[in-house]
Amino acid sequence: MNARREFLRGATAIGATVVGGIALVGCASSASLPPAWRPSPGEASVARVPVSIGGQRVRTIDVHAHCYIPEALALLGAAEAKATLPPVRGQQEHFIVVEERLAAMDAMGIDMEVLSINPYWYRQSRENAEAICRLQNEKLAELCRQRPDRLGAFASLPLQFPDLAVRQLEDAVRRLGLLGAAIGGSVAGEDFSEARFHPVWAKAEELGVTLFIHPQSTPELARRFKGNGWMSNVVGNPLDTTIALQHLIYEGVLDKFPRLKICAAHGGGYLGMNAPRMDFSCFVSPTNCNPAIVLKKRPSEYVRQLYFDALVFTPEALRHLVAEVGVGQVMLGTDHPIPWETHPVDHVMNTPSLSDDDRRAILGGNAARMLGLAS
């Protein structure tokens, strides 16, 4: 309890108001940002203008948006909690003030955000991991109940204890109304293809909910990522996702759970570029393949049953992703409040290879279908 008080005291010291365990933190002043990062005049306070294509209203859904829950972070102790927060612009905005988050969404043309919390609890004890995930799921549901038309959420799961993860996933979906679960790229370096995690994938398949994979860099390469440019994120995050997805494919997990819905952040890492190469691996080097695992399809075919966010930055990158995985598998993802993509609707609208039907699908239709939301 002392750790909790210490953390919440730190939150108030940076200008937060704590209500019901959720730190309500105002947005950073745009005056403190370099000119390239400042909103255009009036942008931060712009009234929401519904997105329309060909005279048809489009509900825009962002499946990749983040927050943190102070009560859960406090269970780590003040020092570890502080180290857990991302060293990025938008850090304070992870502590949601509903009105301010909605205003920021309006400025981006986003009708609905699906919130998630990047796993930081995979090395915690059973008791602490269970408490952290329980608190987060309760508070996420509390946020969503305030504006169910604008906010949804993926649950947090203590995946290092699969029996707990199964119980908390069912509770989060059936009792709290959450839309699935957010998971890392591995469980502290242990791959998802390990049999001990199969009960979690079976439960997700049974519930018909989405597992959103968000990477946590590739810690085995930490020494090589040192230096300029934040390579642990820029290179490590896409690599972590790629490894996770390739294990699910090559180890036959997607054959075992063919109805499992998986959505990968950051355009799925390098999978979209690498998928065709996968088809040749066991032909070129059969000694590096397990003859006991006989896949039902070519490796690249599994890629087209996965889902991906459109956080790939350029029209050409989005065109290529759609060409490789299919337009029905791609949807908006911003990483908000981290300012990787501040004009996500424009990104889709300005990709010339997309038809109007493609744009409607990516902006919201695909996410509504994947998440089981009313259209």
Query: What would the principal axes of the Cα set say about the shape?
Result: globular
Helical residues, percent: 40-55%
Number of domains: 1
CATH class: Alpha Beta
N-to-C SSE string, H for helix and E for strand: HEEEEEHHHEHEEHEHEHHHEHHHEHEHH
Record the strand order, biggest sheet. Answer: 8-9-10-11-12-13
Secondary-structure-based class equals: alpha/beta
* DSSP E strands, number: 13
Structure, explained:
There is one protein chain. This protein is α/β, with parallel strands linked by helices and 375 residues long. The chain has one domain (60-67, 101-371): TIM Barrel. 41% of the residues lie in helices and 13% in strands. It has helices spanning 2-13, 70-74, 78-84, 98-108, 126-146, 162-174, 198-207, 231-234, 236-250, 253-256, 271-278, 281-284, 299-303, 315-325, 344-349, 356-371, and strands at residues 16-19, 22-25, 51-53, 56-58, 61-66, 112-116, 151-153, 155-156, 180-183, 210-213, 261-264, 307-309, 330-331. Strand 12, helix 14 and strand 13 (330-331) form a beta-alpha-beta unit.
